[in-house]
Structure formats: C-alpha cells, structure tokens
Fold this sequence. Notes:
This is Membrane protein. It comes from Mycolicibacterium aichiense. Pfam families: DUF2304. InterPro entries: DUF2304 (IPR019277). Keywords: Membrane, Transmembrane, Transmembrane helix. The protein is an all-alpha fold. It has one domain. It has helices at about 5-20, 25-50, 50-60, 65-105.
Amino acid sequence: MNWIQVLLITAVIALLVYLLRSRTNAKAKAWVKVGYVLFVVLAVYAILRPDDTTVLANFLGVRRGADLITYALIIAFVFTTLSTYLRFKELELKYARLARAVALEGARTPEH
C-alpha cells in the first residue's frame, strides 16, 4: 500500500467519523469553515503552480497532479454529500417536532 492509499483511506474514515459525531456545536461548524478556506487556498495554489501538484503527487505515489486533485475532489464531494444529507435529516426531524407541537397545541377535546 502506498502513501496516497493510506492518506485517502484515512481521510474518508476521518470524514465519516466527523460527520457521524455531533455537528451541531459551534466548534464543529468552525472546523468546517476552516477546512473550506484551506481547500480554497490549496485550489488557488494548485491553479497557480500546477507542477507542484505533480511533485506532491509523485511523493504520495500518484503519477500525475491531476489524479491527486481528482482524489481530493472526490473526498470533498463525499464530505459535502454526507454533510448535506445529515443536515436535511436534522431539519426534517425539527420540522416533525414542530408540526407535532403545533398540532398538540391546537388540539381540542372532542365534545359528546
């Protein structure tokens, strides 16, 4: 197993653990923002200096820098997809609780 495989598997497992933990606290949201800014900075650097991505890719056991960028984009896509899914699931639960509370508040006892 070469470096890139270890790195990719570790990244996927770390993202999965992070997403399955509680993401509602401010610290978790801040790390997402920091990660996004870091990803953007690295993307701009890769655009300005594409040969450096090839050097890094070769160090990690990948032939081309474009392949390394593809792997990074796949991990970012998986993170975004899982994060969005979990966020929608949380919102769905909040709406169900709100609808239940509104229904109970407006409920009347039946008159015989």
